[in-house]
Amino acid sequence: MKKTVIIYGSTTGNAASAAQTIAEKLGSGAVVKEAGSASKSDLTDFDNIILGSSTWGDGELQDDWYTFLPTIKEAGLSGKTVAVFGVGDQFSYSDTFVNAMGELYEAAKSAGAKIIGATSTDGYSFNESSAVKDGKFVGLALDYDNQSDLSDDRIAAWVAQISPEL
To answer: What is the pLDDT of residues 79-101, one digit of tens each?
Structure first.
């Protein structure tokens, strides 16, 4: 397995918890970084990149991402493998569920990355999400507010899905 960095933005700790769990399940020394303290070298020095964010307000990225998101576009991710995860509340924010994950996906895609890790929308109840393309989430969707009991299993299944490509 090539070197993997997990870069996340978290305000309440849920995305941070997800990032740590993903790193543990990946093993092999995956590096975990907060988006607020990440740098361009965190993108260029790693072959595999996992990006994650909680979704806020009307579907926005977590605050730490606003300074780092332009770096993704500047770095150019051609030749990199990227997976994304998002944390949201599918009931209280049913029209913008995990939209932040959709933003990370679009940034990585426009930077030329190979995107992996799409997952089924089965088992979720929401109206809309910019993180759904072709009937699937573009990455791993987590809802710690309403389905925290499913998070570890969802992470384990997703890591098993993406590991062969990392």
So the answer is: 999 999 999 999 999 999 999 99
List the structure tokens of 80.
Answer: 């990199």
Host domain of residue 132: 4-165
Cite the DSSP H helix spans in the chain. 14-26, 40-44, 65-75, 99-110, 148-162
Rg (CA), the chain: 14
Q: What is the pLDDT of residues 120-154, one digit of tens each?
A: 999 999 999 999 999 999 999 999 999 999 999 99
Nearest CA to 150 among 141, 159, 161? Answer: 141
- CA dist 151 to 4, 23, 36, 76, 156, Å? 21, 14, 24, 31, 9
CATH number for the domain including 76? 3.40.50.360
Rounded Cα distance, 76 and 57, in Å: 29
The count of domains in the chain is 1
The gap from C-alpha 74 to its chain's centroid, in whole angstroms, comes to: 19
Instruction: Convert the pLDDT of each residue in 13-28 to its tens digit.
Output: 999 999 999 999 998 7
